[in-house]
Amino acid sequence: MGDLQVTDTQAPETHVHAPAISGNEPQGDLCIRTLAMPADTNANGDIFGGWLLSQMDLGGGVFASKVAKSRTVTVAIEAMNFRKAVYVGDLVSVHANLVRVGRTSITVHLEAWVLRRREQQSILVTDGNFTYVSIDDQGRPQPIQRDGATIST
């Protein structure tokens, strides 16, 4: 999709601020939950950051498609914070909060939390903002269908 151009400059927007990161509990909709496995490690034996990023993108895409009621594609990732390492055996959960809805795009704040073996408390390991664009069957940007003035997730 190298020729995709996104121009949302004059689109009316709906802003929904992501909650401040509390540090103790996941916020937002649970989008995906998976187990970090040995095949997902880097050369140091920790979970590869790219694997975690892909899990976040999968979860965010599910959330964005639900909001847009259409196919969506990732067009930007910003403000990624890799806070803590993820280890083999960690249960990884990705939670989404709606940040902004434009004419064709949706920005989602994603948080990746882990539950480590023999621990009771989830730990925030990564968060960032992902932007998705609603596309039609030919892969072209299309306006997001809205049900009234408020965006319901």
Give a concise summary.
The chain is mainly beta and 153 residues long.
For the structure shown, list the relevant keywords:
37% strand, single chain, 1 helix, mainly beta, 6-stranded antiparallel β-sheet, 153 residues, disordered N terminus
Poorly predicted ranges (pLDDT <50, ≥5 residues)?
1-20, 149-153
The percent of residues in helical segments reads: 10-25%
SS summary, helix count: 1
Q: What does the main sheet amount to? A: 6 strands, antiparallel
The total of beta strands comes to 6
Measured by DSSP, the beta-strand proportion falls in 35-45%
Q: From the alpha carbons, calculate the radius of gyration and give it in angstroms.
A: 16 Å
Q: Termini distance?
A: 27 Å
Structural class of the helix and strand makeup? mainly beta
The arrangement of helices and strands along the chain is: EEHEEEE
What is the average of the pLDDT values? 86
Global geometry: elongated
Write the layout of secondary structure elements.
Blueprint: E1 14-15, E2 29-35, H1 49-68, E3 71-82, E4 91-101, E5 105-115, E6 123-135
